[in-house]
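Reopening: C-alpha cells for the zinc ion complex, inputs below.
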Amino acid sequence: MAASSMKMKKSSSFTKSSTQFLLSAPNNKTAKFELVDYDSLPEFLKHNEFIVSYYRSEWPLKQTILSIFSVHNETLNIWTHLIGFFIFLMLTGFASSVFPTASNAYPLLQLNSTNTFYIDRAQRALIEPSASSSSQLVGSVIPRWPFYLYLAGAMFCLLMSSACHLLSCHCHRTSYIMLRLDFAGISGLIVSSFYPLVYYTFTCNPFFRDLYLASITFFGLATVIVSLTPVFDSPQFRPVRAVLFACMAASGVVPIAHKMMAFGHRPEAVLTTGYEAVMGMFYVVGVVVYVARVPERWLPGKFDLAGHSHQLFHVLVVAGAYTQYLGSLVYLGWREVEGC
Ligand SMILES: [Zn+2]
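Re-run output (same inputs, fresh job):
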C-alpha cells in the first residue's frame, strides 16, 4: 500500500524506538508509521476521548497485523484476550485428554478433587456401586457436548475480541466488520455459558431443558441481529450495548432460580450457584467499568497504555469465563455420578 496513505502526525511523548514501524516506500525512502493523538483520529476510531494518545490510525493491513508486537494503546487489549484464548485452548486439551469418552466418568471425578464431596461420592460409587443412587454411574452416558460448546464459545469470544482490537484501526470497513464479530463473540460466550448450567441441571427434565436452551439461544441471536444495525456502534450507544448484553446475561437468572428451587438441598446446586454468582459479579463489574470508563475518566491520558477500563474489562471477562469453567466441571461431576 502506498506510503502516502499513512498518518504522519507525531504524538508528543512516546518512545520512538518502541512505537514506530518502518516501511520501504516505492521510492526507496523509508517512511515511519507513527502513533497519533485522539484529536487526529477519523470518526470511526473515536471511542474514548479519555485515552488521549498512542493511537494507530488507518495503517496498512500488514503494519496493522505486525503491530501485535509493538506498544500502542490497544496492545494490552489484544494480549489480555489472546492469552485468555490460549488458556481456554489448554483447558480444552486438558479436559479432552482427562476424559476423552462419554462413559469415562472416574477421571472427571478426579478432576474435581478440590471438592471433597465428589471424592467421597466417587469412592463410594466405585467401592459399592449398588449401595447408593450412584449405581447409575455404570453404563450412564452423559453427553459432554454442552461442556465443549461452552469452551468453544469462550475461545470464539476471546479470539474475535483480540482480532477486533488488532485490526479495527486499519479502515472503516474493517472496523465495522470486526466490531460486529466482537459483539457476536460476546453473545456467543454468554449464551454458551448457560448450556452446561441448563443441560446438566435439567438433564432429567427435557421440557425445561429445551425451553431454557431455546430461550437463551433466541435471546443471543436477537442481540447479534440488533447489533448489526449501523447506528449501534456509535459512542452514544455504548450504554445501550452494555445494557443489552447485561439483559441477556440476566435472563440466566431464571434457570438458576429454578435450579435452587428444585435442587436447593443438594451440595452440587449450591456450589454451582456460588460459581455462577462469582461469574456474574465479574461480568457486572466489568460492564460497569466499561460503561463508566474508569480510571481514565479521572486522569485522561495517564492510562493510555496500561490500566484503562477496557483492559480491566477484558481481565474480568477472562476471570468470569474461567469461573464458569470450574462450575461446569461440578455440573459434569454431578451428572456423571447421578445419571438420570
Ligand atoms: Zn474489547
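DSSP finds twelve helices and two strands in the chain. Residues 77, 161, 165, 310, 314 surround zinc ion (CB under 6 Å). Marking as resolved unless the reporter disagrees.
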